[in-house]
DNA sequence: CCTCTTTTGTGATTTTTTTAACAATAACCG
DNA sequence: CGGTTATTGTTAAAAAAATCACAAAAGAGG
């Protein structure tokens, strides 16, 4: 009886959280020219136990080979595929303020296949301005732009008070996922994915741990 | 037999992760003038079950009152105390680039008692420049500055290749906690607390969830 | 081609986290 | 001021996650 490769089996959130880390370290190993690696060794590098690593990977397939280990390049590509970064995806960003501009200026994520396609704001002083090759558009164009340009991820970097409204517009226009930097828990239908970067929460957690020590 | 208020009892990481969220929603309730709230109601707002909320809070004390619920202001202040944001703390930031400047310009965290005391870079073009009231200092002054100015948190917003080196300097100078934005897992002694903002990992997780859907 | 070693994939076990249940306690009301 | 209701704090049960342990598979070396 062969193992079901049934997608319907729920992948635990704890596993999903670790995937990008595995990917990052595999990229490093690949750049160092490493060819193969055992779950033991990779686990030590990443900071998880070997059985956990193996169990995590086996949610998605059998990428290893007994008596050999894992081929670094193959595993790297497999994880990239699992995370959906093999085919490029297009994003829009709304809120060209402090954080928004930082993201637009660095575009760190383009090397991983996430392209910033357009950026939006309400501020007339910003609209029309060019930032790192992208001209700031008026947010009234947002809905049409998303619908017409195969955009699947929206980045929200507006003040908390406008975040939900911007999210609503994105969703109406057919966005699939939202990368949210506003300190707000967006209300979204279940088929819309949200990932929050609540930076202030991170600082408070740090404060707690410092105090506790 | 009274309950031990022993600090040595380990607070689960899962609980620590939720504390800032409780604090944020309590702040909203406080601003709305809400006086009391039950675990049931607060749980619904925050998105956790009522028993979990009660159990979480009871790691730190008995803040509620049977038959009444929780006093919003009291609970808010208690949580602030638990997280160590009653007394202000001083931070330094190293790496005045895209992300660094965004943080310096907004200084969102000052209203929660985290003061940015000085900012550092290696780039001669930046050193001496004033950004939102702070003059960029040369990073060679970092160690002395931390040691002499009661700094307990360091913010790292330098490229990945320099992050560990910057962390080492901070630690040598006596920092207690590091808020790290570089895509690197810093090697630190156990008495140094680290909180990572690995933004790219968030985007990859989002990508996974979008693809899975 | 056979033996020995390595290392995976996975079922069983343990630990951690979450949820449920309820007795104890305090507010509220007549 | 006593009964009723609301709601906590806490113990017990269930669920989820991590770890352990080992049989099965593949490579390495003679
Ligand atoms: N900057 C930080 O250090 C920091 C830290 C933690 C959290 N955040 C959060 O990130 C978000 C952005 O912060 P920031 O410092 O970049 O703010 P900002 O004020 O610099 O930028 C916000 C931008 O959004 C635009 N905007 C406002 N309403 C809009 C709307 N409805 N549609 C389109 N654009 C709109 C504004 O014109 C502005 O350009 C905030 O929610 C903030 O709480 C920021
Ligand atoms: N900007 C983004 O959108 C983004 C997204 C995800 C992650 N990050 C991470 O955040 C970090 C900073 O990104 P950024 O875009 O702000 O980079 P940046 O290049 O704009 O800024 C880095 C700054 O650090 C300074 N620096 C370099 N080495 C230093 C040293 N040893 N001591 C002191 N200063 C030093 C540089 O002079 C520069 O000013 C990087 O690690 C990046 O990977 C950034």
Automatic annotation (TrEMBL), chains A, B:
Belongs to the transcriptional regulatory Rex family. Coiled coil: none annotated. Residues 85-185 form the CoA-binding domain. Signal peptide: none annotated. It is found in: Cytoplasm. Its main location: cytoplasm. Modulates transcription in response to changes in cellular NADH/NAD(+) redox state. This is Redox-sensing transcriptional repressor Rex. InterPro entries: CoA-bd (IPR003781), NAD(P)-bd_dom_sf (IPR036291), Rex_actinobacterial-type (IPR058236), Rex_DNA-bd_C_dom (IPR009718), Tscrpt_rep_Rex (IPR022876), WH-like_DNA-bd_sf (IPR036388), WH_DNA-bd_sf (IPR036390). Residues 21-60 bind DNA. NAD(+) binds at residues 95-100. GO terms for cellular component: cytoplasm. GO terms for biological process: negative regulation of DNA-templated transcription; response to redox state. GO terms for molecular function: DNA binding; DNA-binding transcription factor activity. Homodimer. The lineage of its organism: Bacteria, Bacillati, Bacillota, Clostridia, Halanaerobiales. It comes from Halanaerobacter jeridensis. Keywords: Cytoplasm, DNA-binding, NAD, Repressor, Transcription, Transcription regulation.
